[in-house]
Write a structure and sequence with these properties.
The complex is a heterodimer of chains A (393) and B (451).
Chain A lengths: L5 H6 L8 H10 L2 E3 L5 E3 L2 H8 L4 E2 L20 H10 L15 H12 L7 E3 H6 L1 H11 L6 H15 L8 H25 L7 H6 L10 H17 L1 H14 L1 H9 L4 H11 L6 E5 L3 E3 L2 E3 L5 E3 L1 H4 L34 H19 L3 E2 L19 E3 L1
Parallel strand pairs in A: 2-8
Antiparallel strand pairs in A: 1-2, 3-5, 4-10, 5-8, 6-7, 9-10
Helix pairs in contact in A: 5-7, 5-16, 7-11, 8-9, 9-11, 12-16, 14-16
Chain B lengths: L1 H4 L3 E5 L3 H12 L5 E6 L36 E4 L3 E5 L4 E4 L5 E2 L2 E4 L3 E3 L5 H4 L4 E2 L4 H12 L4 E5 L3 H12 L3 E6 L6 H4 L1 H13 L3 E4 L3 E7 L1 E7 L4 E3 L2 E4 L3 E3 L11 E2 L2 E3 L5 E3 L5 E7 L4 E5 L5 E5 L2 H15 L14 E6 L2 E7 L6 E8 L4 E8 L2 E8 L5 H9 L21 E2 L14 E3 L12
Parallel strand pairs in B: 1-2, 1-7, 2-3, 7-21, 9-16, 10-11, 10-16, 11-12, 19-22
Antiparallel strand pairs in B: 4-5, 5-6, 8-17, 13-14, 14-15, 18-19, 20-21, 22-23, 23-30, 24-25, 25-28, 26-27, 26-29, 27-28
Classes of the chains: A alpha+beta (393), B alpha/beta (451).
InterPro entries (chain A): Cyt_P450, Cyt_P450_B, Cyt_P450_sf
Keywords (chain A): Heme, Iron, Metal-binding, Monooxygenase, Oxidoreductase
Family (chain A): Belongs to the cytochrome P450 family.
Chain lengths: 393, 451
């Protein structure tokens, strides 16, 4: 088939359950694969790694009209560095080195509460009953957002994520508009919450941001809004896929499930392998600030370059038997959290959540079975994951 | 016969990072014979970088930096035993006590030791330290924790600068005496050394440059020192940080090409003998080696880098148990890091192999930058300050001999990115202590007169 339509075929909803044969086609046709609309796709590990570290590659969207302020995920250095460093102060090292580890007991408790009603013989939806509520409860607790407002921001989040998806064959005017509307509303909502904590700090990130005493280390209102939106959305749109993909993968591979049940110490490595084998984030877009060259192919300044991280994770030039799920895999430097300056801010939290969640589920999975395989997937091709995962315990 | 290489007797002399990693790698490569590791320190292999950082700050104690073993290399450990020579003909390592150790293949990983203060009586004063071993680290950490009035650090290379940084972080007054024009100049060249000087002074270090220490005073205990400019520094602790000496004296009569810059070996880690003929059964890795690198004009490099010890040990181990056509060259790009005065400094390539530099990203004012080094129009090194994530990109430029200055288009690119300036790497022969990378070979236009 024609490699110029690969992106359209990858994003076609019919490809959602198994995009990996298309990724193989992408690597065969690559490293640089031009699309009919003038953009290009890259799916080979070493080229993706080089571009993620290339300071000439911009993560900022091409400006059209009055561009709204972007979260640090879509901002270049030095502004990106400033915003990310400020956002990191209450979240991780060097200023808050024990923040995530300190949440371990609470994540354990939330996990146990969610599992309290699970009984053998029962049919549950791993997504709605477990993999979604767990990270949402955690990120709400961390940010300082009331858990009962979840239906509110779930709708906003859906609109925002739809607007951020890659849809080459579709008119995106409507989804873009809905996304913009959602961004405004959720930003206002979070700013309002932050304002309530001004002068009344509690143990959460919104409090820390709004009560920062040093003016040089304070986010502006606008920066605070976009940063808080980013953390809330990223904190609950990705880990849900990681946990769900983990259950799906283990139920599809009973021998690996048995292995893990015998050796639960392998769990942290199994989560890394999962991040390689079935990552929550499949693609990221970059735009070169100068004419660049990738494996002998010139890519002009301003081209939209789509890095297919999930394809890099399956590149046989980097990983031995890449299509095998192997929790004991050595040297597993995957792109599950991307790489370079935009390496996932929440990675330590995601790891802890996935390890806790899958560790707690392991004893129940021995007798569990998939009700539907493949399960129904969400529309999004970039943030790929099942919408439901019905399982018989 | 290739099969035999996986069996037999291998002796490793040197039980630190390179020795341990080689022992592990030998087993991973399928070596099933007998393995003996000889080390003159009484400890199991331990990590040294924390000794000038976390240990001095009291965040870790010196006896907790033992290196984790990735696997049990099933070796006989002869620790606390000094090797005194090697008989290449009889294939035996001589030990200061006990029977000679016969070997089929030998790996030398004896590393370096701290250069001591030249006057033994002054060096013996209580309160005078060097920093290389865990005993050194424990002793110095204990003195710093007791809040001395003032510490004198002699030499502002990486070790000296990190010690000064730890002193200031602990609130201890510190004077640094450096013979060169600025700290780190031997490793990083003129521009970054000026930044290092500013950082030291901003953190309250009493930095004296262009001076040498001429005498240490004390009556049993160290009380102060005299400098070549006629001034005197009163202090109760003195740290001599004048670089490292390679542990090669024990090989003086061996016939191997061992000298002050280390033991010469080929790209496959095989040692040369004194006639420049490569040996088949003696290998070298880590700080004690000097090896040719094609990206740096086939200069013989001597590196004092953690990463090089690991990578070279793995190549040496591979080559010790594989026949010639399957052997690998040691071609990895040198890298090192340092943390001091709140800055994270990382380097890739060989900064001393340069004639010009350019600030490709960030700025000196922001204390956050990527500096690229070039030699005759190609990129040979990069040093980042609080910008480590950019390093992989510059490593790729070095590996591909990309043109210098690097191409435009980088984020955070200053106007100054178009302006190249001389790298001002000093002639190694005028330094009182070596840089952590020494170019020890011959370049027609950069002849080293004194080594």
């Amino acid at each position: 088939m024609d490699s110029e339509t690969l992106l359209a075929r990858i994003t076609d909803y019919a490809s959602r359950p198994n995009p990996y044969p298309l990724y193989e086609e992408l690597r065969q046709a690559g490293p640089v694969v031009w699309q009919t609309d003038g953009n290009c796709l890259i799916g080979t590990y070493h080229q993706i790694a080089a571009l993620l570290h290339d300071p000439r590659m911009s993560a900022a969207p091409r400006p059209h009209g009055e561009a709204p302020r972007q979260p640090f995920l879509r901002v270049d250095d030095p502004e990106h560095h400033r915003l990310r460093t400020l956002a990191m102060r209450p979240f991780g090292p060097p200023h808050s080195p024990r923040r995530i580890e300190g949440m371990r007991a609470e994540i354990d408790r939330i996990t146990k509460e969610l599992m309290a009603s699970f009984e053998s013989g029962q049919k549950i939806d791993i997504v709605d009953d477990f993999a979604y509520p767990l990270p949402v409860t955690v990120i709400c607790r961390l940010l300082g957002v009331p858990r009962e407002d979840e239906p509110l921001f779930r709708a906003w989040s859906d609109a925002l994520v739809a607007a951020a998806d890659v849809r080459p064959d579709q008119d995106t005017t409507e989804t873009d508009k809905a996304g913009e509307q959602a961004r405004m509303e959720i930003g206002g909502y979070l700013l309002n919450l932050a304002e309530q904590r001004r002068g009344h700090p509690s143990d959460d990130l919104l409090s820390a941001f709004v009560n920062e005493p040093d003016p040089a280390l304070r986010l502006t209102q606008e920066e605070l809004a976009v940063t808080a939106v980013l953390l809330l959305i990223a904190g609950h749109e990705t880990t849900v896929n990681l946990i769900t993909n983990g259950v799906l993968t283990l139920l599809r591979q009973p021998e690996q499930l048995d292995h893990l049940r015998r050796e639960p110490d392998l769990l942290p490595r199994a989560v890394e392998e999962l991040l390689r084998y079935e990552p929550p984030v499949h693609m990221r877009e970059r735009i070169p600030h100068a004419d660049i060259e990738v494996a002998g192919t010139a890519i002009p300044q301003g081209t939209s370059v789509i890095l297919v991280l999930a394809s890099g994770n399956r590149d046989p030039k980097r990983f031995h038997e890449p299509d095998r799920f192997d929790p004991t895999r050595p040297d597993n430097q995957h792109f599950g959290f991307s790489s370079g300056i935009h390496f996932c801010y929440g990675a330590p939290l995601a790891r802890l959540e996935a390890q806790t969640a899958l560790g707690a589920l392991l004893p129940h999975l021995g007798t569990a079975s998939l009700v539907q395989d493949p399960p129904p997937y969400r529309q999004n091709a970039m943030l790929r994951g099942p919408r439901h995962l019905p399982v018989h315990l | 016969m290739p099969g035999d290489l996986k069996d037999g007797r291998i002796v490793i002399v040197g039980a630190s990072l390179a020795g341990l990693r080689a022992a592990e790698a030998l087993r991973e490569e399928g070596f099933t014979g007998s393995l003996t590791v000889v080390g003159d320190e009484p400890h199991a292999p331990y990590d040294r970088p924390p000794l000038s950082k976390q240990v001095l700050l009291g965040q870790a104690t010196a006896d907790t930096t033992e290196l984790p073993m990735r696997m049990d290399p099933d070796a006989e450990w002869r620790l606390g035993v000094r090797a005194t020579g090697v008989d290449l003909l009889a294939k035996r390592v001589l030990l200061e006590d006990g029977e000679p150790l016969p070997y089929d293949r030998l790996l030398i990983t004896t590393g370096t030791r701290a250069r001591p203060w030249p006057d033994p009586d002054e060096a013996a004063l209580e309160g005078v330290f060097t920093l290389r071993t865990c005993e050194d680290g424990a002793g110095l950490a204990e003195r710093l924790a007791a809040k001395p009035e003032r510490v004198l650090v002699i030499g502002a290379g990486f070790t000296g600068s990190e010690i000064a940084s730890a002193c200031r972080e602990l609130g201890v007054e510190v004077t640094v005496a450096e013979r060169g024009p600025a700290p780190l100049v031997g490793a990083l060249g003129g521009t970054l050394s000026k930044l290092a000087a500013v950082m030291q002074r901003n953190h309250g270090v009493d930095l004296r440059t262009g001076v040498t220490v001429t005498a240490l005073h004390g009556n049993g205990s160290f009380t102060g020192a005299e400098l070549s400019d006629g001034s005197r520094v009163d202090a109760d602790v003195c740290v001599v940080a004048l670089g490292a000496i390679r542990n090669v004296e024990w090989l003086a009569d061996s016939g191997l090409a061992a000298g002050p810059r280390g033991i010469a070996c080929d790209a496959g880690c095989r040692a040369f003998n004194m006639y420049g003929i490569v040996t088949d059964d003696v290998f070298v890795a880590g700080d004690v080696s000097r090896f040719p690198h094609p990206l740096f004009g086939y200069q013989m490099l001597s590196l004092e880098h953690w990463g090089n010890a690991v990578e070279q040990a793995e190549v040496a181990a591979h080559n010790m148990v594989n026949p010639g056509p399957l052997q690998r060259p040691h071609l990895s790009i040198p890298t090192f890091w340092s943390t001091q005065f709140g800055l994270n400094i990382k380097s890739v390539g060989v900064p001393t192999f340069s004639d010009h530099i350019v600030i490709a990203q960030g700025s000196l004012e922001a204390r956050r930058l990527a500096m690229v080094y070039g030699y005759q129009g190609r990129v040979t090194a990069a040093v980042t300050v609080d910008m480590a994530k950019a390093l992989d990109y510059y490593r790729h430029l070095i590996e591909t001999a990309a043109p210098f200055p690097p191409p435009p288009g980088a984020q955070d690119r200053p106007i100054a990115a178009d302006i190249t300036i001389p790298s001002e790497v000093p002639d190694p022969s005028v330094l009182s202590h070596g840089p952590t990378v020494a170019l020890t070979g011959h370049l027609p236009d950069r002849r080293l007169t004194v080594v």
